[in-house]
Amino acid sequence: MFTLTQRQLRLTALFAILFVLHPLHAAEPRLTLERTNHWLVIRGPHLPASGIRINYLEAYCRAGSTDADWVKHTVLKHTNEFLSLSTDKRVLKLRDTLTDGVIVEHTITAKADEVEFQLVAHNPTATRSEAHWAQPCVRLAPFMGFAQDTGGDLDDYLPKCFLFLDGKLARMPTRDWTKTARYTPGQTWCPAHVPRTDVNPRPLSPHVPSNGLIGCFSADEKWIWASAWEPYQELFQGVARCLHVDFRLGGLKPGERKNIRGKIYVVKNDVAALLARYAKDFPEHHKPPR
Q1: pTM of the prediction?
Q2: Percent over 90 (pLDDT), the chain
């Protein structure tokens, strides 16, 4: 009858422990979240040491913003309250209160290679809210291989960035790059369902994006950062080596409640796989126009 020696038993036990402890489950490294002041930080073993920092949220905004003073007209002030962060740093809850009384509850969940945003905006007042859109500002300099968010040539990172025009991936600067606006530089793309008078007061592209996805490639081009929101207001390339998908509120009537959702993807460089996943996650963005 076959029996294991004591040494074989020890080796078997050791291999079992190593199997459990070995990061096989980290083949797809998991993301985690941090909250510091107004910064939401996404961390992962495959990301730069500083993580991916998001000014979350940079601003809630009024309509009529394309050619308006940002401070005097567009920004609707708000306060942010930290509610909780799970012990595994994967579920973060926040609450924003706007000066006109609107309350926005945020549940942010980090997964293996994406961060999911679930928002509920509620207007408990008797007056219609002027909040039409809001912008999370995602700072991507370290991810793309640049030392800092600001300073120097603010167009140097554009070739790392992309969106989709005429159904094809278009790296920036895209064709017919616009350079005139109330504030420069930068570039805004307005989707067909949003008035062109209601977007960021930066140069407005004459082209309508094919979908609501915007993204960039990592410094070594092995990874893609990309994001989408529903409903979305605009796609925007900013002045802090940042990219935006700004989400749409559309103004809330008294007592009205709206659900908004978004995703950030941090995935391996496979554009076709990313597009397939985006189509599944945001079917509203792929319906034929009425």
Answers
A1: 0.89
A2: 86
